[in-house]
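Please, structure for the following, as tokens.
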Amino acid sequence: MSKFVCSVCGYVHEGELPEDFICPICQLGAEVFEEIIKRNNLNPQKVVYIGDDVNDLECLNFAKYKITVPHAVEKVKAVDDIQPLYSQFVSWADEFRQ
């Protein structure tokens, strides 16, 4: 029996994977995020993504600037270069005041 593991949330689907399969847990993946960036002609090096759960991991890893909130799951808090929302807000507010 074959298994499919969602690259966004980790959901495991056992058996054949239909062409129109949509993950029942997260519904969307990073391919949607990447498509929005391409469609709007954005520079990936200037993208900010705010996430708090495992379904955000792939998008957080794609974004240049990664932000999370205090109640985020530990896997999100462990993402390289991620900043807590509060500290990032304080930093941006300080820049704005100058």
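The first helix runs from residue 30 to 39. The first strand starts at residue 3 and ends at 5.
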